Amino acid sequence: MEEKTKILETFKNPNQDRDYTIEHIAPEFTSLCPKTGQPDFATISMEYIPNELCVELKSYKLYLNSYRNEGMFFEAVTNKILDDLVEVLKPSYLNVVAEFNVRGGISSTVEVEYDEFDELDEYDDDEDFSLN
């Protein structure tokens, strides 16, 4: 799999002095089933609170389109999208929801979330990280 994060372009957040939410909905996402090679169709919803950077939409569209010929399970592709966006954007918060179309009588939704404050909670409050 190519380095997909290189496809994503960003621009400076024009309102870094406030928290606000951006939501992008891509109703035409496709990837391939790794078992059958058949196409999987989904709506990808991405919601985030930017820090310094926002994603440029054309690059985000091209990024999502790059999965068209990739054989990945629903869970793997949804988590990969989240990981790539977090790596590039470094947001305060990011949520990705992948609603896959019905296949074999079953519809699937995968939701993954990143919250920078949850990451900070992993540290013990009693630990001293000072340089003194």
Give a summary of the structure in a few sentences:
With 132 residues, the chain is α+β, with helices and mostly antiparallel strands.
What does this structure look like?
The protein has 3 helices and 6 strands. It has a single domain (4-121), classed as GTP cyclohydrolase I, C-terminal domain/NADPH-dependent 7-cyano-7-deazaguanine reductase, N-terminal domain (GTP Cyclohydrolase I, domain 2). It has a 4-stranded antiparallel β-sheet. The protein has a two-stranded antiparallel ribbon with strand order 1-4. The chain has helices at residues 57-65, 74-89, 116-121; strands at residues 10-12, 22-32, 39-49, 53-55, 93-103, 106-115. A hairpin with a 6-residue loop joins strand 2 and strand 3. The model has no long low-confidence stretch (mean pLDDT 92). It is α+β, with helices and mostly antiparallel strands and 132 residues long.
